[in-house]
Amino acid sequence: MKVTVDLSGGLELLFDKKKVHQIEFSDKNEIPLRELILYMRDNLLKERAELFVVDNTVRPGILVLINDADWELFGGIEYNVEDKDTITFISTLHGG
Residues of crosslink Glycyl lysine isopeptide (Gly-Lys) (interchain with K-? in acceptor proteins) (predicted)? Predict the structure, then answer.
């Protein structure tokens, strides 16, 4: 299973300034979005995990899209990510 993860709104800075990540899970056909988020935290995130994950889900202020649609339409954190899905994380948080 291959998944594309897009990061924007400044989130890419936490992931080594890389906006697009191709993630492959050779032993799975689908993975709960919650597990994908924790995988990203544990394997891709380079700094300040608290700016991405709080209580095992994305921090408030981060918009999550599944194939360009709001994740709430798909059950949010409980969605099972499938092969060739694109998951987009957009930070709406900005310092001042």
Answer: 96
